[in-house]
Every structure is written in C-alpha cells, then in structure tokens.
C-alpha cells in the first residue's frame, strides 16, 4: 500500500502546473563595456541590441516554487554591470537558516558561492540579453545553456543541460 501512495504522490507532483513570472530591465551600457550574467538553471540568449542601452528580459519558471520569490538584481560594479539571481532564504529542518552572503546579506546565485539557496528551488530563468555595440557579455549557467554570437561573448560557461 505504501508504494501505491508514493506512486500517486510522485505522479501528482509531476502534474503540477507551471507558474511563470516576467521581469525586464533597461539601462545605459556599462562604462567598461562589460556585462556579467550568472544563472543557476535556465538559459541565456545574447543578441545585438540597438542604441546605447542594455536590455534584459527574463521569464522565471517554476512548478513547486513561486517564480516571483526569485528576484533579479542588477548592479554597477567597477564600471561594469552585474546581473545576479537572488533566491529566497529558507529555514531547513534540522539545519536552521541558511547562511547569507556577508557582503550582500542575501543568498545570491553566484555559481561559485556555496551559500546560495538555489538548490532548494525549482525555479529556472530564461533570459534574453540585448547589448549595444562595444558591450560584451560574460555568461555563466550552472545547469543550462548559453547561446549567442562569439563576438558578443567574452566567456561562456554552461552546465550539463547544455548538451
């Protein structure tokens, strides 16, 4: 009987409807001509934009977790722009609160940062990045793919789903 209940729960979990939330940002091109984008799961598509503005358009998608709980943060740093995904902090049974990044006070999505809370969320981000001439993109996705012309990409790192 236990296997039957487990099978029903697993089947129902797979049938949960997808939830989506949009997000966009538009701003001036960075002084150094560099934009860094870090995602955990999802995709980054880099395109040539027009004028002197950078445009970021994202669709956050989740099945179990609310995509609106995952924020997108853009900040200027040393003459460049940095886009990070910020996952909500959670209290885990038996572990307490997850530690925060001491510099920002948040659990940000930086692939090299083990403090991030993204492992406990099913939200993925599909991002389109439009950059003007002279701006290049450093794109990193832990589990996903990066698409774009080589002349726009300074670095491209993609995980297992990129195959």
Description:
With 163 residues, this protein is mainly beta. The protein is 8% helix and 51% strand. It has one helix spanning 2-14, and strands at residues 19-28, 34-48, 53-62, 71-77, 80-87, 91-92, 96-97, 107-109, 124-131, 136-147, 153-158. Strands 1, 2, 3, 4, 5, 8, 9, 10 and 11 form a nine-stranded mixed beta sheet that branches. It has a two-stranded antiparallel sheet with strand order 6-7. Strand 6 and strand 7 (96-97) form a beta hairpin. The chain is globular and about 45 Å long.
What structural keywords apply?
mainly beta; nine-stranded mixed sheet; 163 residues; single chain; 1 helix
Provide a compact summary of the structure.
This protein has 163 residues and is mainly beta. It is built from one helix and eleven strands.
Q: Note the main sheet.
A: 9 strands, mixed
The best one-word shape is: globular
End-to-end separation = 40 Å
Structural class: mainly beta
Helix content: under 10%
Strand content: over 45%
Query: How many domain modules?
Result: 1
Regions with pLDDT < 50 over 5+ consecutive residues? 111-115
SS summary, helix count:
1
Number of strands: 11
The Rg value, from CA coordinates, equals: 18 Å
What is the H/E string? Answer: HEEEEEEEEEEE
Q: Could you tell me the mean pLDDT?
A: 78
């Amino acid at each position: 009987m236990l296997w039957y209940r487990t099978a029903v729960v697993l089947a129902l979990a797979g049938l949960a409807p997808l939830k989506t939330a949009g997000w966009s940002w538009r701003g001036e091109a960075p002084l150094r001509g560099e934009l860094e984008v870090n995602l955990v799961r999802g995709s980054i598509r880099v395109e040539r934009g027009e004028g002197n503005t950078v445009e970021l358009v994202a669709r956050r998608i989740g099945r179990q977790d609310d995509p609106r709980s995952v924020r997108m943060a853009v900040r200027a740093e040393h003459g460049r722009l940095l886009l990070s995904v910020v996952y909500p902090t959670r209290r885990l049974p038996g572990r307490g609160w997850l530690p925060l990044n001491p510099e920002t006070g948040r659990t940000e999505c930086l692939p090299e940062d083990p403090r991030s809370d993204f492992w406990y969320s099913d939200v993925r981000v599909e991002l389109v990045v439009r950059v003007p001439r002279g701006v290049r993109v450093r794109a990193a996705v832990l589990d996903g793919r990066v698409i774009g012309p080589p002349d726009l990409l300074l670095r491209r790192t993609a995980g297992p789903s990129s195959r």
